[in-house]
Amino acid sequence: MSDDHDDSPIAARVRELEAVLEEKGLLDAAELDRALEAFAHNATPANGFRVVARAWVDDGFRARLVEDANAALPEVGLSMGGGLQVQRLRVVENTEEVHNVVVCTLCSCYPIALLGPSPTWYKSPAYRSRVVSHPREVLAQFGLELPRETEIRVWDANAETRYMVLPRRPAGTEHLSEDELAGRVTRNGLIGTAAV
Amino acid sequence: MSERYREGDRVRTSTVDPDHHTRLPGYARGKTGVVVGSDGVHPLADLRARGVERPQPVYVVRFTAQELFGRGDHTVTLSLWEDYLSDE
Fold first, then answer.
1. CATH architecture of A43-191
2. Single pTM value for the model
3. Does residue B64 form part of some domain?
4. Backbone φ/ψ region at A54: left (φ over 0), alpha (ψ -120 to 50), beta
5. ipTM of this complex prediction, to 2 decimal places
6. A16, A78, B2, B72: least CB-packed within 10 angstroms?
């Protein structure tokens, strides 16, 4: 039974638990709201843009990021914490030969801390079912036509790891500063449904 | 925790469609893939959903589109708990 859990009994169970914890004085609703707001405020795709820009200008950082993303993120003042647990992150690097694209076929798992809230299409059954079986066609619908010889790797965030794509640095950007490069990155580029 | 599989091992996923929560997607049931990495040790999602914490190794397993869908030239990579896998 690998279906959505948006409207599942677990959501109702969480609401009931929250009410009971508040009633018993174990949970302060205002404090919970503050924590959620702080997380939502800090969780924006600008974080992912910064990570990519640093990787484009610093080969050492890029290597460390691809090797162990959680260990490398603090170098740019970021982490995968902020929620209730630190999530495991894997950064997958696009190259001339390989293009990566991310999906969660079971629900909508997504590295919110680095990319902000996920776009509606990412959560749609159409994207989730089609991109695993027909990625080339789905990417073309996004306007990304890949050469026949480019190997496509789809990553299903079906368990504990979240994924972010490291796009290729666009040609002709040698003169740009790290901040300017960050401004060139797009959210879809971090999911793999666009090049940058 | 000792890991049963190593990078490069060929593994087959379970064919069972359980009536409880699982993180083995239907499209990857009963398929053969190659272990390409380790994803640490995490409580088995199927049991955790029922309040039981039983940690076990999770593997990064890559499948060809041919194996999964009978067509296509791409690959799909998933994270799979040891319980989902058996020797090919």
1. Alpha-Beta Complex (3.90)
2. 0.89
3. no
4. alpha
5. 0.96
6. B2
